[in-house]
Amino acid sequence: MKEANLFKYYFVRYFFLALAMMQAIAAVILLMRFQDSPKNRFAIFVFFTLAMILISIHFLVFTKVKRVAMSKKKLAVITTFKAKQYDWDEVKELKLMPFFNMYSLKLKGKRKKIYFLPSHDSEAIFGLFSDDPDFLRDKMSKV
């Protein structure tokens, strides 16, 4: 079964959270280090607000990114505690989001979509012109 690189998965999953933590640390350093002035208060407000926005983006969007391993007959959604295997017959929808170089997967009987990274490397910037693997092309035509 093929799955995306672990480094790539964790980088995508936690990028906004790490960026939010850096913004929050910058706000705290500004608060502790420099004197109280309107410019400093505004900068602290901007950094803290940006950190809160990035944290909410992480929890709303990037918690849905999962590790998915796939073969010609099955796919497995891997979580920290277990891996659930599904047949390709259970896939309702599979879409490539080319700008983000991610796939969205909708399973029959499930309400939420699963987002995952492809196992192959794309040659184009942001995956704009990336090709699907052969077995994905075959499965997508049946869905």
Mean pLDDT: 82
Q: So what's the CATH class of the largest domain?
A: Mainly Beta
Shape: elongated
- Distance, first to last CA: 20 Å
Number of distinct beta strands: 6
Task: Explain what the structure shows.
This protein has two domains: 6-62; 66-142, PH-domain like. The chain starts with 5 loop residues before the first helix and ends with a helix. Helices cover 42% and strands 21% of the residues. Helix 1 (6-33) packs antiparallel against helix 2 (38-60). The strands form two sheets. Strands 1-2-3 form a three-stranded antiparallel sheet, with no helix packed on it. It has helices at 6-33, 38-60, 134-142; strands at residues 67-70, 74-78, 83-87, 91-97, 102-107, 114-116. Mean pLDDT is 82; it is low at 122-132. The protein contains three helices and six strands. The protein is of the alpha+beta class and 143 residues long.
Short description:
The protein has 143 residues and is of the alpha+beta class. 42% of the residues lie in helices and 21% in strands. It folds into 2 domains: 57 residues; 77 residues, PH-domain like, CATH 2.30.29.
Compile the SSE list and pairings:
Elements: H1 6-33, H2 38-60, E1 67-70, E2 74-78, E3 83-87, E4 91-97, E5 102-107, E6 114-116, H3 134-142
Antiparallel strand pairs: 1-2, 2-3, 4-5, 5-6
List keywords for this structure.
143 residues, 2 domains, three-stranded antiparallel sheet, 21% strand, elongated
